Amino acid sequence: MLTLDTPLSLPAHVSFSVVGEDAFLLNTRTSKYYLLQEVGARLWNLLSGGQTLRQAYEHLLEEYDVSAPELERDLLELVADLVENDLLEYTQT
Q: From the CB of residue 87, how many other CB atoms can be counted at a distance below 10 Å?
């Protein structure tokens, strides 16, 4: 079950480009692009900087005017979608 404490890793086959406040992920295995809007792009930056999902959640909670339950739900939904599209991976511990 995916939680804020699930370890994640960014696969080497995913490239990341920022355009304005949005970002694009490219899965080089499938040649498919994925759009991340402002909050998703910020999440990706935090994760790529070595933060855990929980640490990224705490930063986003401070940076955006959103309730804790809403942010957690939205982040877990986004992460599940990214994993499903082979853009993030669960890390084995």
A: 22
| Domains annotated on the chain, with CATH | 8-88 (3.90.930.60)
The total number of residues shown for the chain amounts to 93
Pairing of strands 89-90, 32-36: unpaired
Cβ neighbours of 78 (radius 10 Å):
17
- 52 neighbors 43 (Cβ within 8 angstroms): no
pLDDT tens per residue, range 10-65: 999 999 998 888 899 999 999 999 999 999 999 999 999 999 999 999 999 999 99
- Check: CB of residue 4 under 8 Å from CB of residue 74: no
- Angle of the 53-63 helix axis to the 68-84 helix axis, nearest 10: 130
